[in-house]
Amino acid sequence: MRFGLLGPLTVHDGAGGARPLSSAKGQALLAALLLRANRVVPVDVLKEALWGGHAPASANASLYNHVTRLRRTLGADGDGRLSSVAPGYLLRVGPGELDSTEFTAAVRRAREAYARADWTAVLGEAATASALWRGRPLDGLPAEVSDALDAQPFVQQLEEERLQLLEWRYEAELRLGRHDGLAPELCRLATEHPLREEFHRQLMLVLRRSGRQAEALAVFQALRRRLVDELGVEPGAAVQEALQEVLREDDAPQEAPRGIPEQADGDAAEDGVGSAAVGTPAEAETRAETPADLKPARRPAQLPPPPDPFLGRDEQVAALHEALAPRAGRAATAVLSGMAGVGKSALAVHVAHGLREQYPDGQLFLNLHGANPGVAPMSALQALEVLLRDLGVPAGRVPDEVHAASALLRSTLAGARTLLVLDDAAGAAQVRPLLPAGPGCAVLVTSRSPLAALDGAVHLPLARLAERDSVDLISRVSGHGRVPAGSPAARRLAELCGQLPLALRVVAARLAARRALTVEALVELLDGQDGRLDHLEYDDLSVRRSLAVAYDALVASERPADRDAALALRRMGALDLPEYETELAARLMDAGTRRTCAALDRLVDVALLEEVAFGRYAPHDLVRDFARELAAQHEDAAEREAAARRGLEWFAARAAQSVRVLLPPSPFQALRLAGEPKEAAAPFADAEQAFRWGDRELAVMSGLVARHVGTEYGREAAVTLVRMLAPYLQRRGRTQELANLSDLARAGARESGDAGAEVVAMSDLASAYYMSGRYEKALVLIDDAIARWRLLGDDEWLQRVLSNRGLLLYVLGRAEESAAAQEEALAYAHRLGDDHAVAICLSHLGNLYELTDARKAIEYHRRSLETGVRLDSARLQQTARCNIGCAYLTLGEPEAAVGQFEEALRSLEDSTDWHTVSESRLGLIRALRTLARAERAAQECETLLDLAELRGDAYTAGKARYEYGHVLRTLGRAAESDEQWRLSLAALDGTDADVLPELRTLV
Fold first, then answer.
1. What does the DSSP assignment read for 495-543?
2. pLDDT above 50: residue 331
3. Greater pLDDT, 84 or 7
4. CA 536, 540, 545 angle in degrees (round to 5)?
């Protein structure tokens, strides 16, 4: 077996096949064990790795589950390889199985070869080690996991060993006289490590020995300036010795710089490299009079200094190098797009510096002012005049018409190898005339707009920086020691900056300027969302001003779509959500779909929104802040309140559509939908689509209800939203959210004087209590609801709560009272002609008969099943099969029970109704235990625990752990069994679970 830490975490079996590590927590667990391979890793260390400082109460049991899965991933020898050894776990790794160990061994051998000047051996060991290196160690693990693992010293040690290895390798190449082709690699390394003298020394020697004396001297001067300015020291002796070689006049071969023609005349070189002369096809195509003396008279080198530091963006750098490599046929073009401050220009300049050797005829840099505050975008003709002037064309020879000037630019660049960086483009129409036509040149464009209409270009959208790179940027720019390594406050600061490079540089500059300002204090300033943008301004850097350029242009535009885009952004600021669907945006704007789509497209074009999926749009965190400011400044209170109300009503309408696919057509469905918003939303195709929508939007809807249920303008819509959302919450098993939202809705309905809505919310709250095992509290609410429904004269709701009362009394062991409530509920169901309600009552009565006559109970459940088949109600059928399985268990027929539970679960697939899923799987576990099928029972326990923890359902998890304890005891794993029972007691304490007395004796 092979384990990989040098890059993304990997596991391969003996045959070379990859073993999947899909779970993030599974990866964290394996990484923690591999970092201390062949040593015992304490449980506390593993919990810290998986959950940081926020381990749940069930962490020990969950850790055990993750260890069990990891053993399965490791295959047949998993138990022997990963063992439980007090006070934790030990992972055994054999010789040659861990890449980091092999890498370190190769580095050691290379060091020994270097010490004895065996340069061939150095190269061999360097190649061996380099073949193992797949990227930054533990790449892909979240930063918080890496920090919790205390992996930074490990990563830093390996990265330092790799750099040392590269130094030895290049030294060996130089000693063996093999310097050809080393310059690009050393140039990149010297740029990435600006203070590492050895790479600069080696680059100087390579350039000098390649006949590039001036460039070698420039490398020394840049290094010396940096060392003196930043550290106050001169370059070391080795670099000074290399400088003497650079300055020495000898007979070293002076190779012409690559790509520069040696001809002194104006004709193009035979290989096509050089400027177009009179009579070339390129000139004829322009139909412009271009004398021979208009060819470039200079080699422009206009690139701004490379950004220092430049961090991250490895994938984008590689993609741009590939896209902009010289090619046959046509000029290479790439477009970098993204929001204000995302680092487009910095990346473009960084990449351009790395491409200079490939474009030796010059590098042009032009700011097109597409989004500069207070500056109008440069016209295409103005840009052409500047470019032609910089290429040596006299001003009087530049045509005053765009097409002619564009043709002259193409002629001037024909045959040359020149790089153009066009920064901050306003649009494709501005850029198109500036593009060279023939091969040899490359153009790198940056723009807030994606410039999708620019044909033949490689388009690369730029997103926020990775968290690790964001923290490193703050640390590097703010100065040595200002940001402690691994600081949680620094990660929070990066998060509050939205990991936007402009914002990161602002906070870093503030830290550098004010030595008394701490990271923690700055986090506190930014943590209050209102006014965050006030703290993201320093000197000439301002996030707000950068965003305002795009918004102000939309407001000032005469195009209706632009003004609509500005309106949409303000209305989004009034509602303030992380994402918006097109239909929701249309409601906020009070506009049609076509008009809304045009407005959203414009916001995407100017990088104030990102289309994260078809029809779904998300503003960056700082754009959300900006939009809130706009709403507060430019929308009056009535408009903001109306926008919030329309947003709540849209979510309520969407939730009403979920009711239609989650509840079967029945009187109760109509009862639940009473009071739904008048303006309908788009329907869901099926229950699964509704569940996915609810899962995605639940946090947003919960926040909206909490924010607006206490207001005059939003109270009614918020209460309605909770009413429509309750079926989703019940069937998904989101008991805590159901309880919280129902409690808010009950208070809101009481405040508005809506007695019916208040009792509906009370009934839903009772449902949440029942599902979480708090039966007595649920019964108090149900009794109150029954009395209120009788007063209100609503027989349909009365029938439902009477049936629920009977169920509660049954689980509380009050059989006679339960029977009376169920008989009354059944009578109401018959009177109302509600067959669905009749089937539910029959099911509840069957549960009662199970206490005295399980065979008769099965008859009742089969009648309920038949009704479910007739009404085509999957939930009735599944509930009936679950209940029949429980009755068979009571009869002592576990084999028959297994068949019923499996049939229920086969159709459920854990997505239709969580309560039925959990009860069916618990019943299956009990039946398997009775049949002594402990291994299968253990697997079912793990599955149920995963599903319960996913939903935050502590009650079901507690019941599952009770069963799991018994299963583990059967398997002879007594210590783990005791732990499961202890966790079960902790989860069920305070509930009315019937296993609590036994648990207290077991623990």
1. HHTTT-HHHHHHHHHHHHH-TT--HHHHHHHHHSSTTGGGGSEETTEEH
2. yes
3. 7
4. 60
